[in-house]
């Protein structure tokens, strides 16, 4: 079984996919319909069939018939492979005799060329573009003679869609596969890039009479940082300096709509969608829906009747929408109908069950969900009043139908066909006003079972049934005749024609073999009464094209005597949309041809205005008595802040005239808004917002500046006589005496990040009002580094901090993930204290959030009862290859640990240059019971490692030819760190004292044979050592010392704790002093006087302050 679908050209380059043709297994007979007695001299339809031989496997077709008295029909058939997602074969057919015969055009376009789409210029239908399939080649074929000849042009991009200009026949826009928009002014021969990163289907040509330049392009484009903007530029002059941004800010993706007099965009504000409209290219103004509609979704239904129809899905709706109508400018919307049903289309889109009746202004039909039932209702005044449809009084057999309103009524299916060559569920025509043909059912609610076909000849006031099953119905001869064919799911050889608005039908045979009808082309031109049926005889046959000439069914051309007048009315009310309208119709049963000079409207006379010509104004709701009263959220006494004393404003009466209603006089003056003088009021309702509604201004990556547009709104008060003081919170304050121009916003540039309090004060002679706004000015985080000790003591508090670059002021949030905690600790400070209660390796992660950026860093901390550590240094050649990044330090630590061949080691390389590291000797797991033994083992291991380091036995190869030696710096922050107080002394300072003493003795011994000056220098060194010891005793009075004979290790005790940071700093300065002394030792053999001079310089230093 094969499924066949149809693609047709619709409008200016829009392509519509038609539902698949399903092949029935059984063929049923014709439906029962109202039939007249066939006349003996009934004219016969002339028809001819042409098979597209060789295309039996092709499953898609594009059919084009230009009409306008043209005899050319083009058909593009193709084989679309669903497995690979592309077209593999194609054939282009052309007919020049209204479809009697067709010529295969493959030789003229290229026998091996695979075609994918066919476009026709809407302003000159002789011009045609055919696109090749990009899987084979990227080319475009152009014809200026209705496809008689083609010229091929290579493209550098793949065309996904085309959009022709409304008036310029050679102008077109092409959208590529890589989201680029191109323009051509020579009908596709040359293309120029307009803009990159354009949203699909969100680009529009200029509108005649509204845009200054005819080549202006409206589009929705993406910025490099992922935002979306509304951009305009000229098609051939669209470089950055020539682009304009009509809306100052970002918009939501897929929100730009340019339609008739209106431009719509959507902007997210505080998590809620906000919609803006520009009327006739004026400034964008926020759309005003009822305060608590809170829309989840909004669709523009139509804009072609001087107002906007919008479908809004509110916060409490799922499968229904509310219908809203606007004022002429498209700003203020009022509710027209609640809970309109939606239907899901073939492409998954939601379609609103709303239908505008062609030819009659203000008439709509909708399906409304009410009490879990869907009912069809109709309006004649653009939604001001709705009522149910009255069911027919009898069925096809003449039996009475007992259907009493409101419990029973007629319900219609309102889905439009996605194939323009099938009529769909409902059909009307502007040239046949008042005639409505639709599929529906009779009962308490809409049903899709037991449906039939119904018709109304008086614009929905009364209905008749015409078929018991679904049919496609088309209008022939400008609506003077109707033709009906069974749905394409059932093959048929007959069609039905009616000349009396569906009261009687005559059957005509158009094929000897039943045909699955995939589509019908009607009305090729005013002078050619030709229809073309296309379809299949079976699911394996070729495409069949059947040309039907129905001119023979008309006996003559209509004259004045063949017409009658028809008065449009609403259940007897002759005034519809404020006027009495009289139409001319052909008398039922006359077999005459209307002709192209047929005029349907005879006269239109204005009526006296009455209440039903007015709808509720914005902020008002219709109550049970029919009157419009203020909604609970609306304050009608509020006067706009733009109203200044001495000026006038329009004070609403709660009503507004239905747009395009033509009534005059009557109650018009009573219901129309009254002009009143602006009162002199104190400022009230002062509002301070950013232009885009965000409290986080955008950051300019090219410079450390933050631009913010603030907007001031005074809901009430005399704006021209009100002074405004605005303080931006960074030391900048401005004052305004005229606020009328600030709707555009006040721009201010912040030069630093932070949280700023922006305040505004409005005051006049009658009072004042104030408001405050807090702005978070941030910049993205570029780097974060977690600072934490590598080893800590169990159950002892430890400080963990994070360094952020660039530095932020009160605008960063820190998320701390400690160990296996399932929830983070959140802070605004870059440091945190934590106590680890269990031994082992613990992971610590910090996440830093600033603006829209989040970075994180992770460290692993070893938690032990006690440990021993050594400071390491390296040969200078390591610094030449130190990139100072975490990965490099980790690898060096791993190599050192491997060189020492110890399992219970932890090596941490410090950031920065010169390169340094700390080596930790950790006890084995579960060693707390035999602690003394473990401590001794760590001491022994330490002695072994120190010995190896002192003998330069620890080294590694950094790269070929570069070996790095690891040294013991003899400085350690914790020879044996423990959680108990008795081991918290500072052995480093005692070690320095011993070093000074030993160095002095060594120098005296080595240089005892030198002259007297050297001896004096040695005495000075001894004095230096004594001064050091005295200074230490003065700094720490509880200082005690004794020498351990075995290990020569100095143990210390002290009562007060020593600050680790101060200790480290002082130890570094002592190292500096030792280095000077060593240099002094090396110079002793050169010159005793020089040595004495240098030593004297050292002795002149304030040793107490140095330490």
Automatic annotation (TrEMBL):
Region (Disordered): 29-50
Biased composition (Basic and acidic residues): 29-44
InterPro entries: Ig-like_fold, PKD/Chitinase_dom, PKD_dom, PKD_dom_sf, Sortilin_C, Sortilin_N, VPS10, VPS10-sortilin
Entry's localization field: Membrane
Topology term for the membrane: Single-pass type I membrane protein
Keywords for this protein: Coiled coil, Glycoprotein, Membrane, Repeat, Signal, Transmembrane, Transmembrane helix
PKD domain sequence ranges: 717-771, 812-863
One of the record's GO cellular component terms: membrane
Segments crossing the lipid bilayer: 987-1005
Pfam families recorded: PKD (PF00801), Sortilin-Vps10 (PF15902), Sortilin_C (PF15901)
Principal localisation: membrane
Coiled coil (residue ranges): 924-951
PANTHER family: SORTILIN RELATED, VPS10 DOMAIN-CONTAINING RECEPTOR SORCS3
Family recorded in the similarity comment: Belongs to the VPS10-related sortilin family. SORCS subfamily.
Protein's recorded name: Sortilin related VPS10 domain containing receptor 3
